[in-house]
Amino acid sequence: DGVRIKFFLSDDKASRELRRAGYQLLVEEEWNFTIRNRNYISTLCLEKPSDSTWMVLYK
Fold it and tell me: Which top-level group of life is the source organism from (predicted)?
């Protein structure tokens, strides 16, 4: 635990870059989770696919 606290309190360039990369991964994962949920909820609202009238006449 002390090592992690020391890492986050350090202010050298390598630590900043690693923290930024870690935060970026968290943001990307949260974005992907949000989009997956939005798409899942959207598909629940759609009607089941069926042939339209003109397609039945075309056959």
Answer: Eukaryota
